[in-house]
């Protein structure tokens, strides 16, 4: 297949063939002029004699016959197992007695989407989207994180070293707002996920986006009680509020990909983020693009 740096593009092949066929150049002279081998010049000249200018384009490399191709009945069984059970090539191959690479080629041949692109409960392809301008959609969510003491918890030192076996250290709640277009994120580590906390967080997040020149027009949340409350609706004011479908987390995963778990600390925060304790005047923000 020709490319930008090819010696013979379709136009160059046509010039070569015309020099040999129409102008009676020798193959050696034409090959030297176009910097190709004599057999290459002979091939394009012969194709020009047979097909004319239309024969100068690349042909498909697919063979006319494939006697060792996977039988159609086996291909149908592979597709049926993939659609009904949503298995990968390894499990399908083990069930049907076929090599996984053969199963993968069959799935690719029929345009079957990868399992990572499917919604497992329904089997439908997940539509990935991105809005056209900053502020068109801001996704808001909460991530619940267990508090781990300095030096590690019971997984490091054992359960017998816990000061109180019946009461843990509690949880911290990472509230995050992410702009769908620019991926600009605003996060605060708070002590709960009540409606008043979520409403106050959105007020500060909206002010932060406004300071960055982003006017929020739509907010997407899950169906948590704090986001269905009147306090959060009042904080949104005239901003449109959309919610994800129940039990469909695949449509609301910007926060999970933006804040991956940190294996060094066993929690979902970056190491440089520290919890801000509640004070009488409110909570200081941890606003920074992540």
Structure summarized in a few sentences:
The chain is α/β, with parallel strands linked by helices and 290 residues long. 34% of the residues lie in helices and 12% in strands.
Q: Label the overall shape.
A: elongated
Count of discrete alpha- or pi-helical segments spanning 4 or more residues = 10
Counted up, domains total 3
The CATH architecture of the largest domain can be named as 2-Layer Sandwich
Order of helices and strands: HHHHHHEHEEHEHEHE
Query: Class of the largest domain, according to the CATH hierarchy?
Result: Alpha Beta
Helix content: 25-40%
Tell me the CATH superfamily of the largest domain.
Ribonuclease H-like superfamily/Ribonuclease H
Sheet of most strands: 6 strands, mixed
Task: Report the mean per-residue pLDDT as an integer.
Answer: 81
Count of strand segments? 6
- State the secondary-structure class: alpha/beta
* Content of β-strand: 5-15%
- Over the alpha carbons, how many angstroms does the gyration radius reach? 31 Å
CATH topology name of the largest domain, in short, is: Nucleotidyltransferase, domain 5
Query: Termini, distance in Å?
Result: 43 Å
Order of strands in the sheet with most strands? 5-4-1-2-3-6
Organism: Geodermatophilus ruber
Pfam families: LZ_Tnp_IS481, rve
InterPro entries: DNA-bd_IS481-type, Homeodomain-like_sf, Integrase_cat-core, IS481-like_transpos, RNaseH-like_sf, RNaseH_sf
Domain Integrase catalytic: 130-249
């Amino acid at each position: 297949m020709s490319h930008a740096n090819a010696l013979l593009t379709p136009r160059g092949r046509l010039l070569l063939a015309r020099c040999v066929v129409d102008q009676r150049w020798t193959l050696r002279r034409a090959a030297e002029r176009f910097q190709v081998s004599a057999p290459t010049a002979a091939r394009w000249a012969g194709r020009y004699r047979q097909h004319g200018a239309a024969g100068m384009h690349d042909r498909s490399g697919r063979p006319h016959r494939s006697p060792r191709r996977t039988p159609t009945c086996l291909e149908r069984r592979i597709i049926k197992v993939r659609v009904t059970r949503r298995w990968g090539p390894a499990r399908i191959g083990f069930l049907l007695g076929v090599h996984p690479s053969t199963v993968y080629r069959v799935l690719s041949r029929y345009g079957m989407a990868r399992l990572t692109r499917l919604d497992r409960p329904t089997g439908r392809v997940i539509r990935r989207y991105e809005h056209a301008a900053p502020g068109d959609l801001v996704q808001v969510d909460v991530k619940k994180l267990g508090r781990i003491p300095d030096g590690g918890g019971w997984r490091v030192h054992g359960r017998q070293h816990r000061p109180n076996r019946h009461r843990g250290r509690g949880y911290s709640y990472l509230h995050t707002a992410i702009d769908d277009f620019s991926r600009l994120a605003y996060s605060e580590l708070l002590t709960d996920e009540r409606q008043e906390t979520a409403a106050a967080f959105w007020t500060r997040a909206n002010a932060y986006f406004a300071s960055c020149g982003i006017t929020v027009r739509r907010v997407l949340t899950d169906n948590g009680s704090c986001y269905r409350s009147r306090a959060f609706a009042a904080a949104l004011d005239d901003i449109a509020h959309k919610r994800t479908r129940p039990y469909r987390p695949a449509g609301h995963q910007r926060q999970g990909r933006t804040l991956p778990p940190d294996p060094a600390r066993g929690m979902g925060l970056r190491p440089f983020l520290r919890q801000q304790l509640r004070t009488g005047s409110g909570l200081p923000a941890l606003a920074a693009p992540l």
